[in-house]
Write a structure and sequence with these properties.
Largest sheet: 8 strands, parallel
Distance between the termini: 27 Å
Number of helices: 14
Strand order of the largest sheet: 7-6-5-4-3-2-1-8
Bound molecules: 2-acetamido-2-deoxy-beta-D-glucopyranose
Oligomer: single chain
Length: about 425
């Protein structure tokens, strides 16, 4: 039973159904305000951190100047609390005039001038979650057109203050309305999170046809408990979720909180590794102005980004949950490559875990192994050879694995199309 073959067949069956706006063929990457900045509107007392055009300009500067953009982190995304409490005279949403004095089109220009994209937030319902004007069914076309007129590139469409019937109408309607503007706008739907995230209430076939990404589950918080809770939910439901993802259509376990206050260094690597295995959108919610170098190194690790951005777009799986509290995750990649994550849920000391690639369903042969976080290359590992990895408590060891056969004997992918066009830190 060759596990890789089974998964490849699944990948082929999902290819045709993505939303037809040409966007997000690999998981979107960038920055999103919510987890770190919430609804801080107190610009008088907290001018650096309040939701204002200054915050988004600052983050755009950092993304453009500190090497993020080149790695794929291109979206600068606004969340709730950006708008005025009242629509304008023509019934259109408008930004808070004190906090966004230049207006959204000017902010979009600022972001675009730096080679970046601007995302905004709306909410299907009478109010946004924080009580700002929502988008009721009769406002959908107006709001889609306003966002397009402003030069917006992505919409996160939340679902507070609407019921299931309205959501069933509103999420597809917004998809149509965005398309009708003629401007390609990435579409993030919070719909499944409001319906428990699982069939039969959630129709993932339909979601893939109308949204580029969707929030399946609750909001992430700045804590390891929250990260673990999300990881468990996504992998406990992997049989349902895995096949719904693919180019242009992604499950979204929510933002990266690496560089904030709640995660240790090992836990930060774990979040990055597991989000890459899940083919998750990578939206950082942190302060790029003051980010420490450990967090930066993890978030800018080229091998883990290459795994996340793999062109085949197949979401990975948990293969094993050991009694020792070690879990093994696996994701197939283009070109017969793959990624493995060895994750420890222990809380005592580094655990020495012994296995072999054969035991993890790898085909007979030799493999080149690159350790993603220690950045060491192991030249040849046979499927039958036992190896031992030492995994820190709440940490990971992550491997990028290539079969040791010449590229021409593998699959017919063009080398230039591999790995999201990123240059890998090791030779293929
Ligand atoms: C709108 O949908 C059509 C048909 O699916 C597609 O060809 C077109 O590219 C879409 N346009 C935008 C702007 O999303
Ligand atoms: C949902 O809200 C609408 C009002 O927008 C109402 O007419 C409808 O009865 C509600 N449906 C349910 C199932 O509560
Ligand atoms: C789910 O959505 C798809 C595509 O819109 C549709 O063909 C299918 O009938 C739906 N499934 C259910 C169970 O409603």
């Amino acid at each position: 039973m060759g596990l890789p073959v089974v998964i490849f067949a699944l990948a082929l069956t999902t290819v045709a159904m993505a939303l037809d706006n040409g966007l997000m063929r690999t998981p979107p990457m960038g920055w999103l305000a919510w987890e770190r900045y919430r609804c801080d509107i107190d610009c008088d007392n907290d001018p650096k951190n309040c939701i204002s055009e200054t915050l988004f300009r600052d983050m755009a500067d950092r993304l453009a100047e500190d090497g993020w953009r080149e790695l794929g982190y291109t979206y600068v995304n606004i969340d709730d609390c950006w708008s005025s409490k009242k629509r304008d005279g023509k019934g259109r949403l408008q930004p808070d005039p004190k906090r966004f004095p230049g207006g959204i089109p000017e902010l979009a220009r600022y972001v675009h001038d730096r080679g970046l994209l601007l995302g905004i937030y709306g909410d299907l319902g009478t109010f946004t979650c924080m009580g700002y004007p929502g988008t009721t069914l009769d406002n959908i076309e107006t709001d889609a057109q306003t966002f397009a007129d402003w030069g917006i590139d992505m919409l996160k469409f939340d679902g507070c203050y609407s019921n299931a019937t309205e959501q069933e109408k509103g999420y597809p309607l917004m998809s149509k309305a965005l398309n009708a503007t003629g401007r390609p706008i990435g579409y993030s739907c919070s719909w499944p999170a409001y319906q428990g995230g699982l069939p039969p209430k959630v129709n993932y076939t339909q979601l893939g046809e109308i949204c580029n990404l969707w929030r399946n589950y609750g909001d992430i918080q700045d804590s390891w408990d929250s990260v673990l809770n999300i990881v468990d939910w996504f992998f406990n439901h992997q049989d349902i979720l895995q096949t719904t993802a693919g180019p242009g259509r992604w499950n979204d376990p929510d933002m990266l909180v690496i560089g904030d206050f709640g995660l240790s260094l090992d836990q930060s690597r774990s979040q990055m590794a597991l989000w890459a295995i899940m083919a998750a959108p990578l939206f950082m919610s942190n302060d790029l102005r003051t980010l420490n170098s450990e967090a930066r190194t993890i978030l800018q690790n080229k091998a883990v980004i290459a795994i996340n951005q793999d062109k085949m777009g197949v979401q990975g799986r948990r293969l094993l949950k050991e009694k020792s509290e070690i879990e093994v995750f696996w994701r197939p990649l283009s070109n017969s490559d793959s990624a493995l994550v060895f994750f420890s849920r222990r809380s005592d000391m580094p655990y020495r875990y012994t296995t072999s690639l054969g035991k993890l369903n790898y085909k007979a042969g030799s493999y080149k192994v690159y350790d993603v976080f220690s950045e060491k290359l192991m030249p040849g590992l046979s499927d039958t050879t036992d190896f031992t990895v030492s995994i820190n408590p709440s940490g990971v060891v992550m491997w990028y694995i290539s079969p040791l056969v010449p590229l021409s004997f593998r699959q017919n992918y063009r080398v230039s199309s591999l790995h999201g066009g990123l240059e890998l830190p090791f030779p293929l």
